[in-house]
Here is the input.
Amino acid sequence: MKVVLLKQFTFLLFTALTLGLFASEDFAKEKLKQANELYEKGEYSEASKAYKSLLADGYFSADVHYNLGNSYYQLNQIAPAILHYEKALKLNPSHEDAAFNLILANEKTIDKIEAIPELFIYRWWKSIYNLFGMDTWAKWVVVFFFITLMGLVIYWIGSKLSLRKIGFYTFLTAFVLALFSWLMADRQKSKLNRIDYAIIMEPTVNINSSPSAGSSKLFVLHEGTKVKVEEVDEDWMNVSLPNGNKGWVKMEKLEVI
Here is the structure.
């Protein structure tokens, strides 16, 4: 009797959790639809609030960040627009619309900083793991793992040597690709969890020589400028620019991507 009751309780709990998950997903999709409708009507301020509400509810999506960035861009709030285009690309590096609109937004910033050229091998490697986001790389892991199993089965049950060779090489190739995809997914996951870059959010910000308000001013940055986070010291961040310049800035002056 106890076993039957336990099974019934488990079934009911699983059903409740499943229904709750679907209900939550449907609710998020409805809120996204409403936010998109506000944007299409030109109500950009209300649309931005709706997209921010989705993010606050934990509905993280490259498209939501992209749409929020568009809302800010239409409101001529360039720094927040750049921030959310960057967040969209962090979640999905292959988001072409976000990449294109980010270029447009960056053209409206004051600071034009030329980067030190990167080594070819580094640019090549970065372009490979940025082909897809974490979720897409994870899907490729599943696909190649399934092909690996198929190749293994063909190798085991193949009656002819030629068929067994096909199975073996299919298994070997798919296994290597599955491992590579897993490494790329893991790299994308670690990138999502790191604090690497931030956006200056205030019109004008002083960059100091040390994490102290009384330290000397090295240079000035303006809103929308992207900086690399090198170090955090209480409520200060040590940041660097693509040209190699470094300095300290109050954390409240910027937003982490």
In short: The chain has three domains: 2-106, 120-193, 197-256. Confidence is low (pLDDT under 50) at residues 2-24. The two ends are 55 Å apart (CA to CA). The first strand starts at residue 197 and ends at 200.
